[in-house]
Amino acid sequence: MHATEWRRFLIPYENAVEELKVKFKSIRTELRSIGEYSPIEFVTGRVKRVSSIIEKAKKLGVDMEDISTGIEDIAGIRIMCQFVEDIYTVVDYIRDRDGRDLEIVYEKDYINNYKDSGYRSYHIIIKYPIQTALGPKTILAEIQIRTLAMNFWATIEHSLKYKYKQNIPEHIEERIKKAADAAFKLDQEMSVIRHEIRLAQKMFEVRSKT
Amino acid sequence: MHATEWRRFLIPYENAVEELKVKFKSIRTELRSIGEYSPIEFVTGRVKRVSSIIEKAKKLGVDMEDISTGIEDIAGIRIMCQFVEDIYTVVDYIRDRDGRDLEIVYEKDYINNYKDSGYRSYHIIIKYPIQTALGPKTILAEIQIRTLAMNFWATIEHSLKYKYKQNIPEHIEERIKKAADAAFKLDQEMSVIRHEIRLAQKMFEVRSKT
Amino acid sequence: MHATEWRRFLIPYENAVEELKVKFKSIRTELRSIGEYSPIEFVTGRVKRVSSIIEKAKKLGVDMEDISTGIEDIAGIRIMCQFVEDIYTVVDYIRDRDGRDLEIVYEKDYINNYKDSGYRSYHIIIKYPIQTALGPKTILAEIQIRTLAMNFWATIEHSLKYKYKQNIPEHIEERIKKAADAAFKLDQEMSVIRHEIRLAQKMFEVRSKT
Amino acid sequence: MHATEWRRFLIPYENAVEELKVKFKSIRTELRSIGEYSPIEFVTGRVKRVSSIIEKAKKLGVDMEDISTGIEDIAGIRIMCQFVEDIYTVVDYIRDRDGRDLEIVYEKDYINNYKDSGYRSYHIIIKYPIQTALGPKTILAEIQIRTLAMNFWATIEHSLKYKYKQNIPEHIEERIKKAADAAFKLDQEMSVIRHEIRLAQKMFEVRSKT
């Protein structure tokens, strides 16, 4: 594809990322505006760069004419949560919308089944209908849901992978795993506190009624 | 309604305004990215303030429990175009989406049938489905499409109306009408040039091929 | 200059545009927040594209090593006002800052002395100190202040100039001048009303005290 | 102070936060645009809410007429870094600007001297000159510089403190400290890797030249 064709090809993905970012940010805004806890801390999104799409297509053996079905994360949305438990609340929000403004294709729980590298996140692949000036289109998009600690770790692992072109030396890989353990430990400590906050709040409520 | 109830009531309208702004801005971005002319110059949006909703409900005799159907512009989108002709291109874009991500309720052509005050704009009332954290909802929204000159005039007329609480003195009303004429003249001059640009471009294309 | 050198060269200009946009938008925000009239309607900014800088340097006979002093509008800020009178209020705001966060180099009043083409705007060339990660730098920037009608006209004239590569055919030039007259007429009508609003408000104030 | 007085009082703080956010974000943008590593990951800012200002003034025994000197964090900027070492690079950037667009009042290193609670961050209190529509003003602002892990922990500690109105139960305080340890461990692991990345990159550079 030429530069112009790529630009044309990527338009619905760019629109989808903008729309989905607005939609998930709205969840946070609306919950906070009515004084409720928001499981969403912040939202980012990006369209995969052309060079990365080509690279991934080669790696997966996907023909260029099949990339819109063969590569699922050309449009990517990332939702960050404070606590591990919040991730599943967000998953439920998305499931509630299944068949409405989006369609769930499949889910991957890399939290209960984390990768060897230490990677943890919840992935949902969706079909998303988009209206462009050139007509309607349905695209695939990947939603990644993670805690702040998971995101912190993943960002750094990603830049190391990029620097070492996938061949991370063993002793550094060892270090990354240790960092993943530390991030995991941090999330666990936080989850325990969260539980206690809820208990404490319930105790307080009961007490104030007697 | 209490402040909290109002906040809850307005959430889907706020989300709709954010989504619709992103959607119409995307049309401009995508057309420009592929080197095509965009009929959309810029897009703004707003949710009507609570005090204005209450005022309008009183004026129209709409009961508070019926405002979501009785007041059509709680969510408002404004699309600005360079030329009068562009307005109708935008109208066609919206009609193309009818039954997809929005539903047209009715249209009002205040350009061919401008108001006595001098007001000119194209209005489309739509139904727009929105997903909130509290469930799905369909709301009404008003899309106003106008040239920059129409918008310039309308903004100023609006602030005068507001200052005079609808009772604009006659000699000022006279002046506003003169300003509307000047704005209308400006749009007409621009339309003539636009036609000539297109002719000139066609001549150039033909010449460059012989 | 190579692409990387250009990017490095343009960094302080990009920072300056971002800072100046924030600064002038703040004037509007703060005046409105305390219930005062803002002479600033909206603010835009842009850094000149490399191709346009090169073109202008050739046209003006400026050597490439002198462009930072020879081309004054690499950083450009545009401030839009509702009324012609507001332009001079904004000019006063900028003069008040002279020697503080910016330094005025010179001013050009294309409103009282409009160009043959019909172009009207107030230009102020400033020196603006900027802190970059690579050290401090002082750059030149151009601030254009105009009414919405002036801006509307200028935008369209600019695109016609661009399309005809400066050689606008005479009969179209004639049309553009007519459009400029219409825009000028619109501004005049608005100015008259503005005066009357103020008078009306004073009358009202006096009456409400007796 | 009445609501209007508060709004007037907070204007320069709001402007300062906007300007400083733009300035620190620019550092990231410019370094990345020339292919250099940015020690700044992201930047946020906020003006303290009126209720929090009043509360803090009471706690510190500051009279209401002295809050502009007695409360140093009415304007707050937060800069997030990937690695602990980046924090000190950012501190150096700010020191370089001392006497230019800002003035350093004092610094507090809560990284080498972390608080009992486990709180770690680098604080710089600055004087910042601001031009408002109502004249020039110099305000105090607090810049907090931290790693993503420090920020993650601090955010959660802050919300717990808020929920327990400063009186966090001992067993939860114990838990928070454990979480701080986990966050600290994560930062340490990351720092070790950072060193190795640099070594690896140097080896690579040397190898590619022989």
Q: Could you explain how this protein is built, in words?
A:
The structure is a homotetramer of 210-residue chains. The first copy, chain A, has 210 residues and is of the alpha+beta class. Chain A has a single domain (3-150), classed as 2-Layer Sandwich (Beta Polymerase, domain 2). Helix content of chain A is 55%, strand content 21%. In chain A, strand 4 (122-132) and strand 5 (135-147) form a beta hairpin. In chain A, helix 5 runs antiparallel to helix 6 (170-209). The longest helix of chain A is centred in the last third of the chain and has 40 residues, at 170-209. At the B-C interface, helix 5 and helix 6 of B face helix 5 and helix 6 of C.
CATH superfamily (homologous) name of chain A? Beta Polymerase, domain 2
Most extensive chain-chain interface: A-B, 31 and 31 residues
Beta-strand share of residues of chain A: 15-25%
- Please summarize the sheet with the most strands of chain A: 5 strands, mixed
Number of individual domains of chain A: 1
- Secondary structure class of chain A reads alpha+beta
Low-confidence stretches of chain A: none
